[in-house]
Design a protein that fits this description.
The chain has three helices and no strands. It has 65 residues and is mainly α. The mean pLDDT is 93.
């Protein structure tokens, strides 16, 4: 399982690429790995989605670039 810093870095990167659609993108990836039966990757993507939602709720996107 990636560290909290890894999750934060991934979430920040995805926001930089996808903006407010980052959580939707990450949730799609979560769904893909879940369908493949990869529980660790599913949990990782769930953590990334949660972190993205938190960042977008409390930080203006312009400050994340």
């Amino acid at each position: 399982m990636p560290s909290g810093d890894d999750i934060l870095q991934a979430a920040t990167l995805l926001i930089g690429v996808y903006g407010r659609d980052a959580a939707t993108y990450a949730d799609g990836r979560r769904s893909e790995v879940e369908n493949c039966g990869d529980a660790v990757a599913t949990q990782t993507w769930e953590s990334i989605v949660t972190q993205i939602e938190h960042l977008l709720r409390f930080t203006p996107v312009t400050q994340l670039h």
